[in-house]
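Sequence in, structure out. Go.
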Amino acid sequence: MNNSKPSKSNNVSSAPGRERGIVLSQQGWQRFQVAKQQVESDEIWGKHFTQEDLSERTGLPLNTLYRVLKRELGVDRHSLEYLFRAFGLELTKVDHISAIVTGEESDSRRENSHQDWNSAIDTSVFYGRERELAQLWHWIVCNRCRVVGVLGMGGIGKSSIAVKAALQMQSEFEIIVWRSLTHAPSLTELLSSLLKFLMPLYGEDPVIPPTLDEKFSKLMQYLRSRRCLLMLDNVEVILDPQRVGQWRSGFEAYGQLLKTIGETPHQSCLLFTSREQPSEITLMEGKQGTCAALSLAGLTPADGRAIFDQKGEFTGTTAHWQQLIHHYGGNPLMLKMVAAATQELFDGSIAEVIADLERGILVFEDISDLLDRQFKRLSTAEQKVLFWLASYREPVSIAKVRKSIVGLTPEQSVPKQLNSLMRRSIVEKTDGLFCLQPVVRVFFTNS
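Output:
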């Protein structure tokens, strides 16, 4: 006889060192995320279910729900069925796999000869981002977008989510290649590096074509014949600091690369990360569904706090934790810096950090350096608008900016400068109002 509610305990047998039971497969995980997002949109106006909300809706105890959502610890089939039915889904065979398999596959990228991860970062420790990962899966796997960008300010986790997304969807591609643009390779150098890896996979001797056009043609031939995922990290390095979205002198050919891959029929995808959106993406985004861009926001308070849990013991009230995560915009890199410094300077006391923040003290030099690098990429007109927003402190309409900034910059250029600052991932827009994250505002106020 089947019960209508799951058992209050989750009895999962185990063998020494290995978890038994099942976990959601990548397909099952994505089905659940899409259904959950739809319910959140329909029933709670786009807000997110907390784990307590999910526990109440599914009838699953919090410890069981944690195992289900973690996808590394096995549960029984009934737990997954309860989860799916709570969101109008039926669990099928392809929605789950053995928990043992996930552990054995964790290092698959190191063993697969059709994958070249080069200098891609390790994502074995990863926090949250379920909605963003589901969105990337939808664009790349379901919609088969040809070009997808992950955009956001420094430290927000662009590289991490790109790697995590690629690992989740690696079974959807025959070939995966990761390259970083940190050292600003020319397009000729990049294409030579890609072809050196790709040509043997296609049964060809790695004799690199001599001209740029021939290299480009050979790459496009490969993208058409097999499903490849190409990833370019840190694209902002080859963008002009003073002209948002434009390429540095000598790197204009990268624009043609994005344009050709985005507009030419093939079965592959280019996934890139950048602090700024290249102008080609602005023009192609939404065009026949072949190009999309994800603007990456900060972590939730719960996921942000998980970063601190990895660093040691901290003390603070719930309100203090929320204020701290909000101040730093949920930026994972900044939170790691804050966690380390809080241990060293304040013996783990969140209250003492908050006290300094309330006095307008930035506290952490590493964060100042991170923001300063972003500030140096701004034009003089952008800097003037940014300083005014920092001094105003409250979210403000474009009409208010235009009216108040007269004398600092021409009124007619205000929309252009605000748009540029948003594309640089510095200014945020919510409900039609423009604002800065608290940490950004304090930095520019004190500059």
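Check: The longest strand covers residues 175-180. The two ends are 69 Å apart (CA to CA).
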